Amino acid sequence: MNSAIQSKSAAAIDRAAAAGRTALVGYLPAGYPDVQASIDAAVALAENGADVIEIGIPYSDPVMDGQVIQAATVQSLANGFRVAQVFDIVAGITSRCDAAVLVMTYWNPVMRMGVDEFSRRLAEAGGAGLITPDLIPDEAAEWFEASDKYGLDRVFLVAPSTSPERMAMTVKASRGFVYAVSIMGVTGARESVNDAAHRVVEAAHAAGAERVCVGLGVSRAEHVREIGSYAEGAIVGTALVAALGQDGVDGVGKLAAELRSGTAKN
Amino acid sequence: MTQSPQTPETGATSDTADAFLAGASLRHAPGPYFGNYGGRWMPESLIAALDELEDTFDKAKSDPDFIAQVANLNRTYSGRPSLLTEAKRFSEHAGGARVFLKREDLNHTGSHKINNVLGQALLAKRMGKTRIIAETGAGQHGVASATAAALLGLECVVYMGAEDTRRQALNVARMELLGATVVPVTAGSQTLKDAINEALRDWVTNVHNTHYLLGTAAGAHPFPALVRYFHEVIGDEAREQILEQTGRLPDAVCACIGGGSNAIGIFHGFLDDPSVGLYGFEAGGEGVETGRHAATITLGRPGVLHGARSYLMQDEDGQTIESHSISAGLDYPGVGPEHSYLADLGRAKYEPITDSEAMDAFRLLCRTEGIIPAIESSHALAGALKVGRKLTEGKSDPQDVIIIVSLSGRGDKDVATAAEWFGLLDKKSPESEIGAEGEQL
Question: What domain of life does the UniProt record list for this protein's source (chain B) (predicted)?
Fold first, then answer.
């Protein structure tokens, strides 16, 4: 790991912590419902309380996504979304707000463009790094090289099923934060946050992770509050996508403000 | 080679390629990498399950009890060894070369698929899993999985594109008769690849009690090596049988390629025999120039899908392109990673066969040998006709050329499609309507 690299997402999480808050991380798909609206929605998300924004690249085979996000990304692709537009979206967001902007993507679109080329363009757009749901550190040699070269964060996932050996390896490979999957399953809003989340975060901390954010099934301020008692950040996706679909950009802002109310640490 | 090594630190590509050129064995490649291909491009949530499967498989392979159990089921349930039949009248159309058919169509459930499902269902039981899930396109792997689940007392859920469940109503009924639950998949393009996506979503949610019984030699490690292992019996038997019947090795072995499980199974028996040419025939659909095909190795480029790096039909953005073939079993935009490796090495050759060429070979085998082949296998037959004509060119005695074709499945399921193709149906008949939609009875 290159210690000279200043992680944008780590800085955003640390700013929230210094202000006595749990970091709020919000996900929205690129190009949904269209390119401009996805920029506006992300800015509204940041202005209403998100510290870190995740922009998801719509992909033909999203094996980790539940129905709400699938439906949104299918619509984005049907509207003609092209992968390179994600850089315009990231630049559009970073020019209008201070939130760290990560791109969440399945790996094949990155591989197709070329890992170095993708990384260079993401860094130029002001992006913080990548969250990679189907790339494990074991396969990430090219991404290690490119992310070091362009100073990008590498957010890998850990899960309730992750062994102690893999936890240590993944924590070491990550930069920015570690994404703790709260439950064995796919994205989607759930009634409560699974108990397993707490154990995953503890294991990640024990393995040396300084910043751990919890995602999957997080949709309400009370979830954010609960997660804040043991993790540095809470990640909300499906609920925001549903709000965008139902009530547009204003719906995203309103939900973000509500989620923000759960970030105050006692 | 058209790409740089993905994992340069392993040195896998140059080491294995150099070893091959130096005459080292290509048999029993253990994975996770086959040159630049294979690996585990999978969510972390599933890595523990893949590790458990790999560990269970490694122990089982060296356990005489397990080996005996598989051999016993192959003999007393599937009906192995399958026959090697010389197709004398068909041979006349292959330049006069001697063509032998490896009769996987005679196995229980009508195709090679049974070899893999029995093996994996036994592994599932060893892992203490009580539920298996599977994907299916036309329904062949789904029926085989449901069969193995019934035999071994496992719960079985099969994911199938919604469009396919409608077109393949009889195969859905078959699976349900066998006690399986069939779940129509309405996501994405509602085809085989989406059925795999949905099965993966189920697996990540239920992995504590569920084994994903993948139907082809693709996917994340250890699936490509594991599925091949259970199909190696095809090549092992064929090699022994051809030596017994002709006293020598064949000049060529031909197989069809979707994901490539029957092909890798029969190729494996001959990988280290350099005199034996290996030919894989992909689905050329309406013609590779039309864009409506499934010729993954011929026209795809390396990428990652469903857990492995391999050739892939993808657009400029890395989005998967939908494949097309008259044969549902070959209608997949990916291919097993070991085939990608054998293609790059040049050890096996991969060529497209169009729907039309496959259907001509289908009819030819029906009429010359009294065997109705699966449309999948008809691609291998069409390829064998071309290979035979080529290899016999200039030979004083064409009978000196020997070709084995993997007849991977029987064509009973394809009768409606074939009858429609050849215009054998009364236009007003219900079968005609079904056939027009690609139904395979």
Answer: Bacteria
